[in-house]
Fold these 2 entries.
Entry 1:
Amino acid sequence: MKKEANITIHINGQKIKATKGELLLDVIRKQGINIPTLCHFEGKHSDYPCRICIVYDENSKSYIPSCNTRITEELNITTHSPELLKKRSMLLELILANHPDDCLYCVKNNACELRLLANELNVDQRRFHTKEIAFNTDKSSPAITREYAKCILCGKCVTICNEVQKCNVLQFNNKGKQSRIEPEFGKLLYQSACVYCGKCLQVCPTASLYERENISAFFSSLGNTAQKTISIFSPILEFDQAITSLNKTARSRENHTVSILRKSGSNHVFSLNPAIDLYLYELLNEFKATLKENKTLISTFCPSAELYIQKSLYNENIKLSALIKPIYFFQKILEHIYPESKFQLHEFTTCVAQKHIHATESVKDKNYAYTVRELMKIKQTTSYGNNSSNVKTDEPLHLFSALSYLPFIPGGMSEAIVRMLSLENNAANNNINFDSFRNVENFGIVKITLHQREYSFGIINGMSHIKTALETWENRLPAFIEILACPNGCYYGGGASKENQNTEFKQFSKQWFEIFDQTLIRYPQRNTQLISLYQEIKEKQSSDSSLFYIQKEE
Amino acid sequence: MTPSFGELLPYIEKREFPNEWLMLMHHEKVSIPTIFISISSATPENIITEIKAEINRYAETQKTTFNIIETGSFGILSFEPVIGIQLPGKARIYYAEIYSNEIYSLLEAVFSQWVQHHHLLGQLNFQNTEAWEGVPLLKEQKWFCNESRHITEACGFCEPPSLLSALSWNRWTTFLYALRNIKQDDIISIIRESELKGRSGSGFLTGLKWQQLTKTNSEQSFLICNAYESNPSSFHGRLLMESDPHLVLESIAISAYALRSTKAYLVIPYRFSLAIKQIQNALKQAYDNGLLGFDIQKSGYSLDIHIFIAPGSYIIGEETAIINAIEGKKAMPNEKPPYPIQQGLFGKPTVINNVETLTQVTYIVRYGTAWFKSIGNEQGYGTKLFSVSGINILRGVFELPLGVPLKHIYDLTKNENANVKAIHLGGPIGNIFDQSFLENIIINFSKPSFVYDGSILFIDHSNCIVDYIKNEINFIQNESCGKCLPCREGSKQLYHILEMLTKRPENEQTKETLVRIKEVMMLTELSNTISNTSLCGLGKKFPNLIHDLLLYFKNEVEEHLYERHCEAGVCKNLRTYTIQVEKCTGCHICFNKCPENAIIGVIQHPHFIIQDKCTSCGICYEMCKFSAITFK
């Protein structure tokens, strides 16, 4: 029996039909009426403590929070009355009373939701004069800064940390006026179980949580003439909504990343793709080696997932991939190409945890990672207009295969391995159903038969499923496990622009087909220029075997 | 000799015990001198030990033996520790506030048949015992409330650590009788018929709540007995648990049986250490004798009672916060709906009742609806425990019928020095009234004199109401869970506005003077916003205090605001200090100590205070050895 319960409710005197169980806020917004909220989370259960979205119900003669009310009975709603407006602005004033008035010097500045809301609700004077702010900032982590003074305790970061990512790092501590959102027992972020996925940075309405900014390091590197400034951008930026305008398809996109980086004054601009080509090439070798050992290989492509496993899970049958990150592949290649000059790498990516990798991994010269938000700030400082004339990356590393776009999508790494394997065995691609790789919702195993041999691939989409997946597969672990910490891949990463959150993921992964079909070089093995370069580097080094692997200290 | 539990079982089911055994258990007939010591959290444990040591010392010197029995408390905390002495063949005689330095002489007096009238409470006469001459009967004492003493009838007489003593007071008999003879749905309809209202404050009909649970048709449901008394001025639930733990457990058992719950939780705050000890001991006895656990007395009904020792926070008393705390989360209230009755503990339907409500259930099941309805009036039937406190007031728990005039409670408890300036009902989420209400308030489940949780605090004229409410709001701003914005930030601002009111601006030249008045003007709007938009009952109700302050004590607020004067002299920063010329000897101490250099004068000549410089810190007042400095 299907229940199509329609309930008629009144909003500002108008009769409106709504389905039972629908959220009141959605119904009101469908009518084109604006209800401000600070803490509402679409589709996720949250505690909704901000109460700014209150509306007045004539039937029960009470004020109800619209973002937490499911429609079960007839309602008679007033959304804007002088009383309501007064109450909403007073609630905002209560927040602002305890908020530092340093908007001009604030990182969020124009992007601050609190500031926009103050404008929306016409708050024009300070009526509460008491401030009790704890001015301390947690800068322990190289990736994330936590500024307690600006926290308005909306709880969005707690929801995303505990319910979406299930890291359980941030939580409400203390009570009453001492309430704070912080890691357990008031630890610093660096001491906690945080893996710097950066999802909380995207939801924070104020500048309480933001990335450790490296912009000054970028500009000081430009000023240093003794070394080359080399900007490398992650392929996912070609699709990021803040920089790129997608014209119908991914093929006909207009990417401004290269031009922004050129205008900023970088000596060389490269895309990370060639390094990923080499990474995949090397990964295939590693995969074959672990197959012989009958062990499970877990990819360490995603730094957050690697940290998560290192911090909280350990299993003897699991072998973490010993490959270094693609950006260090790039470093090795560049060291080969420019043997005499010094250079500094600046990586532009959607990944926040990459900042942590750059800060902690022992390399000769300090490199830096930047998020899209920082790139936009660099653009603001250096670019004028959207004039992008030179969009090609620098030679000789301008050629790459289509597979190098794949590791950023859940299931992509496994798909790349299968495609590479099938090329080696000259098997026709048509027999393999690649859709099964992309249709993994949360986690799942994909089994592929190639030349009478069965390969199983475990795909985990989102950090929240790592623990459950490994527990479910405990008895029969797949040969290869790939994990992406941010749900639905790096396109929605912690450092990506906010606009990405509203777009459909599946659309993006389908667009990859168009790229694959229209690219000349499809496979890393066919990228002859790169492979020959790779052979040259290997020949040059005496102890070739450990070149691209993490050096273990003995 | 005392029979074992197994031998008593047939009598329990008949609900009638042999008279001889009852006399033995109630210590009506004693063979050696017996001393009763009341144990309650009003008396620290070391004092009890000292008293016992003194009694033993007396026994050694007199070469006699005593039987020392630990009982619960009558409920009047001002009387603690209460000592009862019973000589063979004589009536039992009770004394109040007997400490270790007085017990020796008291025993000497009693054993020489001489009645000491100091601290005398009264005597308890039984059959075949000889009464003391000139000693009033305990049960005729005004404070004993004998006519309306029902659920606390065993408090002070029953021995909390003993199961047999509890049985002699009819504990567990009602449960076992109901288990055999009354159907579960019948109990619910009895409670529904009796119109029992929840005793924790909101006055929701208990029977209605239980009926809603049966309608959910869920296989599993939970019962939570809320004994978390977070209101600092209420302590009657604690008394029940300390003095009559078996009644509390029996009540949970009956209610859980009626609701078909196989698991019940008793939530006790961690700071009630004595109550936890007594309840845990009673629970062990109940399990050992098959009164709880699997297949109770072969009836087919199984029940587990878990004691949840709750961490300290005011908000745990809220029902959804209790559920969160038991589930292991932070104790924060959730938005309602869904109500716990629909989706409660671990997602299952859950009934949460106050400990006092459940004990009333036992008495309704035992004596019937007609008996229950004969007490009280149509707004609320039955008796209610009142926790009364105040200066020059008899502090303690009184069981009185609902609909009792407030004046009656005041007359019952006041002493000759008592006076009333304000009456605070219900703690931080209650109301505060001025003295004109004393004459005409009847306490019941109706406005304006809502019963709330039964705590009554009489505030006398030595208190400043603005300062009092400031302290209450300070309590709220520390004890609010910190989840929803209006309550957390609003209470913070309310506290600071009231704090501004109780002191003088530091600098008259700045805008601080104007801000002080402006913010006080916003009190009404701010408290309205908090009460309308808050998530849980705490935020919705605590602004009532501000409303009452502005409604009933407007003069006092205006006096603070405009005249900068506090009549009671409590607000130290509003005092104006003056030096009386005739008393000042010119010792120059105040001159040296004044941090603001507001005192001028030469040694051996009278000094003066410059009022413009004075910040009313009060240091000179404390320093002056000749009481030459006075304040207004």
Note: Chain B has a mean pLDDT of 90.
Entry 2:
Amino acid sequence: MNYALAISGKILQRATMLLALVLCVTSPAQTEQLTGGEYAVKAVFLLNFAKFTQWPATAFDSEQDSIVLGISGDDDFGEALSAIEGKTAGGRILAVRKLGQGGELHGCHILFISASEKWRLQQILAELAGRPVLTVADMENFAEQGGIISLANEGTKIKLTINLAAAQRAGLKISSQLLKIATIVGN
Amino acid sequence: MPRCHNMLPETAIAFLLLLFFVLPGQAAGLSESPDDLTELSLEELMDIKIVAASKKKQRISQVAASAFVITRDDIRRYGYRTLGESLRRISGLYLSSDRNYDYLGVRGFSLPGDYNTRILVLVDGHRVNNALYDASLLEEGFPIDIEGIERIEVVKGPGSALWGSNALFAVVNVITRKGSDMDGGRVLAETGSHTRRKGFVEYGRLFDNGFELAGSVSGLDSDGENHIYFPELDQPGFHHGVAEGVDDEDACKGYLSLAYHDLGLMLYKNKRRKTVPTAAWDGAFNDSGTYTDDGFTSAELSYEKDIAGSGNGHLLARIYHDDYDYYGEYPFYDGGGWAGAYVLNKDEGWSKQWGAEIRYGMDITRSLTTTFGVEYQDVYEIHQKAWFASPYYALTIDTGTDRNAYHSSAYYLQGEYSLLDNLQLIGGIRLDDYSTIGKHWHPRAALVYSPRLSTIFKLLYGEAFRAPNDYERSYDDGSWQIGNDRLKPETITTWELVCEQNIGSHTRLVASIFRFELQDLITQVETANYLLQFQNNPHEVRSDGAEIQLQSRFDNGIEGYLGVSTVNSRDLELDTRLSNSPSLLASGGISIPLWSNKLYLSPDFFYVADRKSADTTADAGSYFLTNLTITSGMLFKNVSMSFSVYNLFAKDIIAPGSGEHYHYDPAADNYLYFNIPQEGRTFRFQLSCRF
């Protein structure tokens, strides 16, 4: 039985050393390509959406009010949101609220809808109809289904799709700087 | 820690080599840290190459189930020392210890003598329940250190439609900390009552080229309670029922995970030794010679990819190898009790298996998502052996290593269909085909309805099973216990109605009522010629119950939870309540930040109503257990501390003993059965430092 343990330990050790050597040899040459963790990058996109969107005056009670970013459903961001929390966008501070499943959506200016809520997406969008809420998700076809901005993964890059008609119905103005790097869809 | 010395240096060296070879390679060509990303322009953001962090393979749709999450933050705030201690905060779950292992009861089911066989435990989706005893360990025998856990996902109810055997009452998925969670290194030192000492080191990072590394090593040494009093054994020959200095525990664990783009490798290994103060099976009482060793060694290689442009397609392929080792020494006096010659009984067992799985999920249409998978498992070695080592050698049982080998294949399919915008139907079925017990089907179905965003109703139905394990089928020593190769699997059918409701913006309520019926329960019985054998119990067990779980998080930082559950678990034919099945459970905790988040005060409590023991012992009364943990926020940017008191009011708590908890009294010529005293008041202090 000691023999079995010793063998397992040796296999573990050898596997790790082999992997170390393999990774050294196959490590790609260093380039200037910028890289970032998936949700770290998506979080920064959310901050940028806050910077490049204009809400109607009725969306805020006062000039000091924060822009509230709500995360609805399972939280895939984790620590990544702490990098954008408290930053300024258009003269306002960005506040982050993790709503979980079915949390109170009202009071959010940006709502990120997690894939866990996909099954009742239409119910969420119907609830927000006519309200100045910028809806964002990383589900496929989110913009085609009535969401405003879709942040999908395309290979190793992010692809932006914006439903301009949905933005207009919500009373939101999206800056041309953001529109020009995105694919526009919409009805 | 004798055996830990064998594996620790090897693994540590391999780990350090990895750091020294890989790190310098990454030092050149740095890219922006997350903070700097906020300075980039939109065009630069569009150009960034995404390195996907931790994979989502563990996240199967939780919509169709009663799911709960325990976070790293919960573990820190309430000072949970083991996986078992963290799980009992969920309503309907309770923990009992026999001072050897900890057992988790779910919904009124925790028969003394069972080995957690009816709960499936996973680490990052990898099955931990070993092939030999069908069980996972939940105390220090659990292969991943509590400090290395990022999150625990618990699904109450049957899970065989997706996971196969063992998922009768719950599926517990332990998600480990990855490189992006650790983002650096941490050292932790722990000291506590009964000379408890523990050291833990972790290091992990997500590197710029997408390579992610995470590893940890820990070692624990505890002398245990010096003085444990068993009132039923209060006889002069049994040291007046006092077991002194025979409760010590040693454990060491190592974990390594590597990920590079779509490939992942996970390795873990642990070893745990516990001295057993109960000296079960009429062993030599108050003798430090009774102990058990348990160890897991596992490796898994996985490939996981999002297939874009094919309807959220997701592919997972994995191949794995598991090793489980057990060894125990049970000295006893051959005249019974304290009479006769001192004989050393030794027991060993191991199981080795490898397996592979492929799973693919995609959206077929906008309203229909499906997942299907195939799994194969080959348990190529199962070994059990027991013998007397001194004063003479005598072999009791030796099953060899491949006589009881077996394999199984499984196929499963699940579909999620949106009937309406707020109504979803989920159905799943799995076929398991064992070379020992043949084919078995397990379906499940769920209807999920959301009348408004803040409310979700779920109507759930599920069937699950547990295949008889090798110990139940083949442990045959010819004199006390015989095998049974005609054992059928246990099956369970569960109906449940769940309501999840958000109240205001700070509170979430989950309420459920359920019924389950358990058939062909495998229990150990005495045959006509006084031998022990595992048989399928012809009596059905029925359980009806209700549970409520409340969780709140307020803006001022105060958080709290409360769980209450009631259950009636009965043997239908005999119309008696099961052993160790409390009719009422309650648990709750509150965490209060003080001094602008520099300190957190978190008391918690557990109430367990009285439990019936076996017919031969007095029932175990109800108890109210209180713990208190004080944690600091991050001090001096890198340091944090915590101080905990467990069983704050030093209550005398008892768990019902099982069939092995007896001693023969030679003076009175009768058998003394006993219950198990649980831990008294203990302290723990932790100091942790990031680097």
Note: Chain A touches chain B through 79 residues (CB under 8 Å).
